[in-house]
Automatic annotation (TrEMBL), chain A:
Signal peptide: 1-21
Entries under Gene3D superfamilies matching the protein: Periplasmic binding protein-like II (3.40.190.10)
One Pfam family here: SBP_bac_1
Full protein name: Extracellular solute-binding protein
Alphabetized UniProt keyword annotations: Signal
InterPro entries noted in UniProt: Bact_solute-bd_prot1, SBP
Superkingdom field: Bacteria
Organism: Plantactinospora alkalitolerans
From TrEMBL, chain B:
Mode of membrane association: Multi-pass membrane protein
Residues that span the membrane, as ranges: 29-55, 90-113, 125-146, 227-247, 286-305
Family: Belongs to the binding-protein-dependent transport system permease family.
Principal localisation: membrane
Keywords per UniProt: Cell membrane, Membrane, Transmembrane, Transmembrane helix, Transport
Protein name per the record: Sugar ABC transporter permease
All copies of domain ABC transmembrane type-1, residue ranges: 88-304
Subcellular location: Cell membrane
Amino acid sequence: MKRRRILAAATALVAASGLVACSSDGDGGGTDASNCTNKITKTDLPVVTMWAWYPNMQLVVDNFNKQNTEVQVCWTNVGQGGDEYDKFQTAISAGTGAPDVIMIEMDRIPNFQIQNAIVDIKKYGFDAVKANYSEGSWKDVSVGDAVYGVPVDGGPMGMIYRKDIFDKYGITPPKTWPEYEQAAQKVKDAGGPQFGDLGANVPAVMMALQIQKGASPFAYDPAQPKSIGVKMNDQGSKDVLDYWGGLAKKGLVGTQDQFTPEYISGVINGKYATYISAAWAPGYLTGAGVGQGQDTGKFAVAPLPQWDTANPVQVNWGGSSFAVTKQAKKPELAAKAAYGLYADKESLTDGWTNQVIFPLNLTALNSPEFVDLKVKFFGGQQANKEVYVPASNAYKGMTYSPFGQYYFDAMTKQISEVIKGSVTGSQAADRLQEDVAKYAKEQGFTVQ
Amino acid sequence: MTLLTSKRAPRAQAKTHKIRGKVHLREHLMGWLFVGPFGIVFLAFLIAPLAYALYLSLFKKQLIGGTSFVFLDNYTKAFTDPSFLSGAWFVLRFSLVAIPLQIVIALAMALILDAVTSLFARFSRLMIFLPYAIPTVIGAVMWGFLYSRSFGPLSDVFGLFGAEAPDFLSSNLIFYGLLNITTWQWAGYYMIILYAALQGIEPTLYEAARMDGAGKWQIAVRIKIPLIAPALILILVFSLIGTLQFFNEPQILRYLAAGTIGTDFTPNMYAYQQAFALANFNYGSAISFALGGVVFICVYAFLFITRKRRSFL
């Protein structure tokens, strides 16, 4: 009887550990060239596989394949952002299953570079395309002198707002963050909607806003890969977390997770007067059904509010690149695809006219059609000329960390605590510092 | 055959012994052949991955410094890791509330459906069971929408009374939001198990009870419930294991409320995060085994407490 009991309990143990069984089956997918989403017509050419999630990727790949006579791209969309990274991460651990070319947000490049999962593409034709992108763009895809990605789109930030709400409450776009709060208070006192939103699930925004006030969360020099600087509780970081925590506490901004149906329906119903976001947001919002029907042209955009108008700082949210993976059998062919994709005029024009991307390719970024574009989502406002292009030009690039995923998860946790009211913004910054520094040490870094 | 051999002469006995040995061997082989297919699958898909995960959990992988053997360090770390401990504490608390609730509801419904035999009862049985037939992922997505304050029915219902709808995805109420989803999903399934057990009771017992003057209530409490105790314990063990391994529902709702449901919300989610997002398969495996240990202890303790009533294990 006793043995049976142990056996039964052992069965329970086995059942409980069922999850670990999953960890050994590598989630491949996407590397099989017969599995493309696009159709390859030039079947005699070598094929490179690719993962990417741009909404117009089908067109981009078709354009590339049509124009290229050396290599064809087999593309699949395995998910956006984190979903794709999880799959890539699994493929890296398994040593097989990764595509040849992969779309990676620029802030994740060091993350994969340190694992030796992506390759330096400088020797595969960098000089030919160097002049097509700005220095700042190249900095964001480089670790030290090595280049790990081809910049495609950026995310210069601005303040999207609803003209109808601003008009109704007699507000002009705030130029500084204190003005932003005053305007929020004014709208609230008049019984208006919330002025913005503090979403716990968009830590990248908080990071950008902290950088705007002088924060520099990471210092990393690939020449000394074992040491990393972690600084998340400097005065600037604390001030920004306190500022947003204060807005949330006073009920001036919402605390809804963004990119959720709940948030989008709030945006459509005019629940938020502003949306602090990046240049790709209009495309995303349009796709989600915002600004259509009777709401057409109700949105406008203004430059991001500043802390110090004498020394404005422009920041960035998102932006992606194409990288070549270590698992690519023919890296030079893969690099050809990485350099060539989304670099032709047709694809770029489709990208920016539909506001799917804010192009970093200078042939598009500097073209008059792009700069002078009257953006339909903003009711004909020349948003690129007025806001996004100057913001992009003033953006200086930044240092990302090799454990961006952990940092963002930890940041989400702290923002959530601030929203709950269990800690102040300053305390959250201290906790974040402690948490991330501990993780860095666990990972074998010397933390400075 | 044994009778025959025992009466034979010693020499012949030795001979039959040989034959018996051969027969034995053949029987052995046949037995192994029958067990073989199961054995291979069992070893390849259960024991081997488990052994591999156990092996992985004894190592440590760092971004700087690579992989090194650390023996049980990962387990020491897990049981001092606030993320793991808070997750384990959450699922334990959740089990203590969710399991009794689900079982009481399932038992009440099973007793009612057993006592009433109308067309409506049969229809209700199907309807109560239905949520179990809906995949957990879809169930979680569906509830995620129902909980929405801008387009879910909650705001309408509360609006009738001029109140503001509660946000079941906020950190204060997520416990109840999840409690509702799991109860909705599982109570019907447990009800079917209990109902089947009730159907297996000899009806003459009820007759005898009635002869002795027992009412409906007494029959239910004194006869039906004690007789289905083994089934009750079975579903208790099922639900205990299932709840401690909580994963699907919170993982899905994370897409709607990442701030409320952190990556370390439950131990299983934490293991998933470590393994698949942070590429730390070693620590992820250790967390899984540590959780397995917690489940083992809980189930063992439960079985020990209820040892007199069991008949199925």
